[in-house]
Design goal:
By secondary structure, the protein is mainly alpha-helical. About 75% of the residues lie in helices and about 5% in strands. It contains five helices and two strands. A hairpin with a 7-residue loop joins strand 1 and strand 2. The longest helix is centred in the C-terminal third of the chain and has 38 residues.
Length: about 150
Amino acid sequence: MKNPDLKTDLKKLKKKITKVNPILKEFRDFINRGSVLDLAVGVIVGGAFNKIISSLVNDLIMPVVGVVLGGIDFTSLEITIPNFFGGSGAAHIRYGNFIQNIVDFLIVAFCVFIFIKLINKFSTKKETEVKTEPTTDDKILAVLEEIRDQRKK
């Protein structure tokens, strides 16, 4: 910046903003933490995962369940309540969609459970492999113990 007055004005403005609204500073610090970014990535991946699971349920599992239960299509199940006030419209309670969403949820929850179980299985294997190799600190501790034992003699 060529203009020193402009530079000082920007510094003053920045100080005023942080003094006037410390919530903005706190919000900026909150957003810059890694956990928020991880959460955002998780939500995006979860949305894509949900589409895959919905397709699995709607296109593969529910037709088989419908055949086993006698050809029932859950999404078409509804209760119709007529209009008692003389109008031509009626109310439709579509409980089949609710059943479908419960099945979707149970399958998604089961898939997430299996996925987390696999991640835990692989992470414990890595931890045990790492524990078998002595670290630098362990080596230093072993040398210091040897020196201590030799001094005691």
